[in-house]
């Protein structure tokens, strides 16, 4: 397994690639969190559950996942994704065939 990126390597990467890597990781993390939130009994919470709470739950899960990734408590995928994006960016691009 590759070593984690250093802070300097991460900072040197283009912002759009860092954001893309974090966005991908937060989406993956949100997918894993969905069953956790779905299995919780909302009627025992402070807000009492109901249809409105169920409608807002996916946004809550996304927000929790994004914040966890930003804080460095996600799945740890963003460094690997960023490394792959950087390698892909530096690789020579195949030429388009002439038409």
Shape: elongated
**Separation, N- and C-terminal Cα atoms:** 42 Å
Q: What would you call the structural class? A: mainly alpha
Tell me the β content. Answer: under 5%
Alpha-carbon Rg, integer: 19 Å
Give a short account of the largest sheet: none
Can you tell me the number of structural domains?
1
Q: What order do the SSEs take from the amino end to the carboxyl end, as H and E? A: HHHH
Mean pLDDT: 84
Q: How much helix, percentage-wise, in residues? A: 55-70%
**Helix run count:** 4
Low-pLDDT residue intervals, each spanning 5 or more residues: none
Q: Give me the count of strands.
A: 0
Main attributes of the structure:
elongated, 4 helices, 99 residues, single chain, mainly alpha
Would you kindly provide a written description of the structure presented here, covering whatever features stand out?
- The protein has 99 residues and is mostly helical.
- The chain has one domain (15-86).
- 65% of the residues lie in helices and 0% in strands.
- Helix 2 (15-39) crosses helix 3 and helix 2 packs antiparallel against helix 4 (78-90).
- The mean pLDDT is 84.
Overview in brief:
The chain is mainly α. The protein is built from four helices and no strands.
């Amino acid at each position: 397994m590759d070593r984690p990126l250093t802070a300097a390597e991460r900072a040197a990467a283009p912002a759009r690639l860092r954001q893309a890597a974090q966005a991908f990781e937060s989406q993956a993390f949100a997918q894993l969190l969905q069953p956790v939130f779905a299995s919780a009994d909302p009627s025992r919470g402070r807000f009492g559950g109901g249809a409105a709470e169920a409608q807002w739950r996916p946004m809550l899960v996304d927000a929790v996942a994004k914040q966890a990734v930003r804080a460095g408590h996600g799945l740890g995928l963003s460094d690997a994704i960023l490394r792959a994006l950087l390698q892909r960016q530096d690789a020579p691009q195949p030429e388009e065939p002439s038409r």
